[in-house]
């Protein structure tokens, strides 16, 4: 084998013209060297173009047309979008999505930060704790929604049962915005806190010990060390989790859907309908594809804006100093 | 002082452990009991003996509308096919991006990263139209083919290959006359195996748990397991033990994966975090 292929440097720029005889073998070799990288990455780009990129562009096109079950009703320009801007149900869904996002993300990331800080200490049974906080992530969203839906039941749920013990009257969790948001947000919090804690923990473990020793010499206590050393140094992990939570939060769908027994309008007064649910309702229940596509693009733009804003905010996070 | 600080740490950790695990335990308890216990105060905290009966009901005529067995089989097929494909194509592309030189490499890598930001879910309306054109509504391939590659996977494997495959190894194999694909099969894939395992775990879990798209493109008679669950939750929402038994069965494959590979999962998440 090695006798046939002349030893040549692995990473050369194309061979100088006329240097080697254009035998079949060396042409094959050249293709193998310069062509195979493209062959290797092609499946990804081809499939993504078909099922990821094309739908997104096509959504933009459909969103400019009046397209429903009866077929394509022609170009309407920004008609769907201006209708959307004046649609109170849409703005209600935006409000719900943002409210749920705040309730689901802020406690989640704060709890994750605390748990990570605790797991970063020399403690016993470390792996057990790590595995335990990660257990929720293997549960499916549908499973979480079903179990929590029961726990939040008005008459038979354990949450009301426990609240009853301390004298609180039974709450109809689905009835109001506040209570339904809390219930749905708790599902998201439960599922993702441990995952984020592990990401923070990994970042914390990469911080050199001597930084803490120096801070200690300067008289910084545990809390001060956490604010001035830990938080600034895990900022990349913070930005990552904030952006991921934003993307997930803007697309929240399954939890509120199953919390309301599969009702895509999110309660009798749409009190917990998210934008993703509204898109689904318009597209697959009212079969208004044009309008649904306009909602989809608006969600996409909202996600990008929220992601960038949140990334900028968390990038600016500094510990107490400076 | 030091001692008291430590007990506070353990107390907080144990509380978070209980909060993490309790809903799963409750799922198990209800699935092994009958509907009478719902709403009992204090709630029953030990499993009962009704699991067999509940499972029979789940697969019997009582829960016909959920097509649960069909859902399990469909999800199994979909999750395995998607996992195999994603791991293979991601390793291949990740290796190319990390270790091979070619024109446009950086621009193409940035394109991959940019696609990670695109929420594919938001394209479900036109994706649905594509499926209608292909005649794939209510067909299992509709929940498989669009997910055969993953930008996240390519990125993950690229990061992994960068570290795990030494350049000297590649050069040595080249000198021995290995073709690039031979190189991938014989030298690179063994080194990528731990990273590929983590990617496979994530992909399997994500596909098994996928909900929105199956709901859009499949019908109730040919569901995935999560779709079946939502049918249970919608059609039999007063029958808690039935819902919980279904949920338990749908979660068992993931729990098995978690018990077997939990360690790798932990280190996979932590590794990825350090690199990103």
TrEMBL record, chain A:
What keywords is this UniProt entry annotated with? Cell membrane, Membrane, Transmembrane, Transmembrane helix, Transport
Q: Where in the cell is it found?
A: Cell membrane
- Is-annotated flag, keyword Transmembrane? yes
Note the topology in the membrane: Multi-pass membrane protein
- According to the entry, every stretch annotated as the ABC transmembrane type-1 domain falls at 94-310
Which PROSITE patterns does this UniProt record tie to the protein? ABC_TM1
Q: Does the keyword Membrane apply?
A: yes
GO CC field: plasma membrane
Output the InterPro entries linked to this UniProt entry: ABC_transporter_permease, MetI-like, MetI-like_sf
The highest taxon in the source lineage is Bacteria
The primary location reported for this protein is: membrane
Compositional bias ranges of the Low complexity kind: 13-22
Q: Which GO annotations describe the biological process of this protein?
A: transmembrane transport
Note down the stretches annotated as region Disordered: 1-22
For this protein, the parts annotated as crossing the membrane are 38-61, 93-119, 131-152, 181-203, 233-253, 289-313
Q: Which family does it belong to?
A: Belongs to the binding-protein-dependent transport system permease family.
Q: Please report the name of this protein according to its UniProt entry.
A: Sugar ABC transporter permease
Q: State the organism named in the record.
A: Kribbella turkmenica
């Amino acid at each position: 084998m090695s006798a046939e292929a002349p030893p040549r440097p692995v990473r050369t720029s194309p061979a100088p013209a006329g240097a080697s005889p254009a035998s079949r073998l060396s042409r094959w070799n050249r293709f193998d060297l310069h062509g195979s990288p493209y062959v290797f990455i092609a499946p990804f780009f081809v499939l993504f173009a078909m099922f990821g990129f094309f739908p997104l562009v096509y959504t933009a096109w459909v969103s400019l047309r009046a397209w429903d079950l009866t077929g394509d009703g022609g170009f309407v320009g920004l008609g769907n979008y201006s209708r959307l801007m004046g649609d109170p149900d849409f703005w209600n869904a935006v409000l719900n999505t943002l409210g749920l996002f705040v309730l689901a993300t802020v406690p989640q990331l704060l709890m994750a930060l605390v748990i990570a800080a605790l797991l970063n200490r020399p403690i016993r049974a470390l792996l057990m704790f790590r595995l335990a906080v990660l257990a929720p992530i293997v549960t499916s969203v549908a499973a979480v929604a079903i179990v929590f839906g029961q726990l939040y039941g008005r008459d038979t749920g354990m949450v009301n049962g426990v609240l009853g013990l301390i004298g609180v009257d039974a709450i109809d969790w689905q009835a109001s915005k506040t209570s339904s948001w809390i219930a749905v947000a708790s599902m998201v919090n439960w599922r993702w806190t441990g995952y984020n804690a592990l990401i923070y923990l990994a970042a914390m473990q990469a911080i050199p010990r001597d930084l803490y020793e120096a801070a200690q010499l300067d008289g910084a206590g545990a809390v001060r060390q956490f604010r001035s050393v830990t938080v600034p140094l895990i900022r990349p992990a913070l930005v990552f989790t904030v952006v991921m939570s934003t993307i997930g939060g803007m697309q929240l769908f399954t939890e509120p859907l199953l919390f309301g027994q599969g009702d895509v309008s999110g309660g009798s007064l749409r009190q917990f309908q998210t934008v993703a649910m509204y898109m689904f309702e318009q597209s697959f229940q009212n079969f208004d594809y044009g309008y649904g596509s306009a909602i989809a693009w608006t969600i996409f733009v909202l996600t990008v804006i929220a992601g960038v804003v949140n990334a900028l905010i968390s990038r600016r996070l500094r510990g107490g100093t400076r | 002082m030091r001692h008291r600080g430590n007990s506070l740490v353990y107390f907080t950790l144990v509380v978070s452990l209980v909060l993490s695990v309790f809903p799963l335990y409750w799922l198990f308890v209800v699935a092994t009991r009958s509907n009478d216990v719902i709403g009992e105060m204090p709630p029953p905290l030990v499993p009962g003996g009704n699991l067999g009966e509940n499972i029979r009901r789940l697969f019997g005529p009582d829960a016909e509308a959920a097509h649960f067995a069909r859902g399990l089989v469909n999800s199994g097929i979909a999750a395995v096919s998607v996992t195999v494909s994603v791991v293979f194509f991601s390793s291949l592309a990740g290796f190319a991006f990390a270790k091979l030189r070619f024109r446009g490499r950086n621009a193409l890598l940035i394109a991959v990263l940019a696609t990670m930001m695109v929420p594919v879910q938001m394209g479900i309306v036109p994706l649905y139209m594509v499926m209608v054109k292909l005649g794939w509504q209510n067909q299992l391939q509709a929940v498989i083919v669009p997910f055969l590659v993953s930008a996240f996977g390519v990125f993950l494997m690229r990061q992994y290959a960068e570290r795990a495959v030494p350049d000297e190894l590649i050069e040595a194999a080249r000198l021995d006359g290995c073709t690039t694909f031979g190189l991938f099969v014989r030298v690179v894939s063994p080194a990528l195996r731990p990273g590929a395992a983590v990617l496979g775990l994530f992909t399997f879990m994500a596909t098994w748990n996928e909900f929105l798209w199956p709901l859009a493109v499949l019908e109730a008679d040919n569901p995935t397991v999560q779709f079946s669950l939502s049918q249970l939750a919608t059609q039999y929402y007063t029958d808690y033990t039935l819902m919980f038994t279904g949920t338990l069965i749908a979660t068992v494959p993931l729990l098995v994966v978690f018990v077997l590979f939990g360690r790798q999962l932990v280190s996979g998440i932590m590794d990825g975090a350090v690199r990103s």
